[in-house]
Amino acid sequence: MTNENNHTAESSSCGKGSVGRRMFLGATGAAAVTTSLAGCLGGISGDDDDVFRIGHLGPTEMEMGRGAARSAELAVDELNDNGGVLGRDVELLSEDTGGEPTEGERVAENLVQQDNVDLLVGTFVSEVTQGIIDFVAEVDVPFLITGSADPDTITQNHGEDYDHYKNIFRTGPINSDLQAEGMADYAAHLNDEYGWDNFSILADDAAWTTSFRDILPEQIEATEGLSVVHEDRMSVETDNFTSFLDDADDADADVVFRFIAHGGAAGFTSTWAQNEYPFALEGVSVPGMSPEFWDATEGACLYETTSQSGAGGVAPLTDRTMDFVDAYEAEFEDEGPPSKPMYMGFNSYDAVLFYAEAAANADTVDYESDLDAIIDAMLDLEFTGAAGEMSLYGPDEEYPHDVRETRTADGVISNFPVTQWQEDGDDGVVECVYPREDATADHVEPEWL
């Protein structure tokens, strides 16, 4: 296994040989890259050395980013075991964005201009994605977003200048507008199950939560009998959540939908559980998706839920799901957390294989000459991934080049399933609890309610 912090000039090339099938993780400083590479653009498009290079971007100091990079590596291995991409060996180079827009810009430019990648995959923080999107659009390298969910990334770029941004796609997760719709459906489900009708919405003050703050209240209240009785936003620097939870309690909330992506999530959950607040804890918690979150909270996460692509790796969403999870666990069992791919891992694995299939259909990866052919192949592709069925919105639709939602027979959005921490003897286990078609267990209400 390649050292995850060892990405040096050896992994950068322009018309030179591949460094092998394994990825190189870690940020590349300017001093680590040979200056003679400056200005070289496009491995296949610029200098055809029969190597197809994929650049992965993510916060690899975080479990989410590591899981995504490892998952992209598994996809690359799978491609190489089956002849590569159009007969070319595939090489993965993964860079740490640190979750910061300025660092995201630097490493994206390195991957394109110095490492000559033919495809970019990744980004977790929406502000990082939006910080690099103009550069990526300018150089035309295909870019598949696999972590950030702010719909504005698509609607305010493709929607305003489609031709300029047409090389950029989101293959997962579904955007936050669609997630909000799915959460409103889930609110109705909880009302059917328990009679809960008063909802609180607590959200990070960040781009990806705008839809939950702006449109979810109205969507919840569109269901007769449901009310949003409390709303607030939390700074991503917040580490004391008592006042927010007290206010939700004072408003008589039955459910708190919290949308949180920063490290304070463990404190949020622990405060809720230790004080046995009289409401369920639902919504989206990115840290809560970690397979190690039970230990991080010493079991306080019992009963909390989160929606996530891939359903935590516990439900056979497609014929590919569990094979991917098993391969991940076998490959990385001794490498430290995360012990499962996490949502961005599912999306990154699927994105690499999705693009490879589209390239095969287009019979080209030369984005400088054949970008439109590649785009058409991607827009035509109906793909079965580990996270579910995948297809993309077209250029004239509301979310151009964004991943479509999938729906159950009764119209419920299904490709952002809900998982819950439940008891398993003295330990905790993740179960998929919604939608019913994919559930591995029934939802369990907190014992103190």
Care to give the gist of this entry?
This protein has 14 helices and 15 strands. With 449 residues, the protein is of the alpha/beta class.
What does this structure look like?
With 449 residues, this protein is of the alpha/beta class. The chain is built from 14 helices and 15 strands. The strands form four sheets. A six-stranded parallel beta sheet has the order 1-3-2-4-5-6, with helices on both faces. A four-stranded parallel beta sheet has the order 8-7-9-10. The chain has a three-stranded antiparallel beta sheet with strand order 11-14-15, with no helix packed on it. The longest helix has 21 residues, at 342-362. The protein starts with 23 loop residues before the first strand and ends in a 15-residue tail after the last strand. Mean pLDDT is 90; it is low at 1-42.
Query: SS-based structural class?
Result: alpha/beta
- Alpha-carbon Rg, integer: 21 Å
Gap between N and C termini, in Å? 47 Å
The biggest beta sheet reads: 6 strands, parallel
Average pLDDT score: 90
Features:
single chain, six-stranded parallel β-sheet, 34% helix, 449 residues, 15 strands, alpha/beta
Strand-helix topology:
Elements: E1 24-25, E2 51-58, H1 63-81, E3 89-96, H2 101-113, E4 119-122, H3 126-139, E5 143-145, H4 152-155, H5 162-165, E6 168-170, H6 176-194, E7 198-204, H7 210-214, H8 216-221, E8 227-234, H9 242-250, E9 255-260, H10 265-274, E10 280-285, H11 293-296, E11 305-307, H12 321-332, H13 342-362, H14 367-380, E12 383-384, E13 389-390, E14 418-424, E15 427-434
Parallel strand pairs: 1-3, 2-3, 2-4, 4-5, 5-6, 7-8, 7-9, 9-10
Antiparallel strand pairs: 11-14, 12-13, 14-15
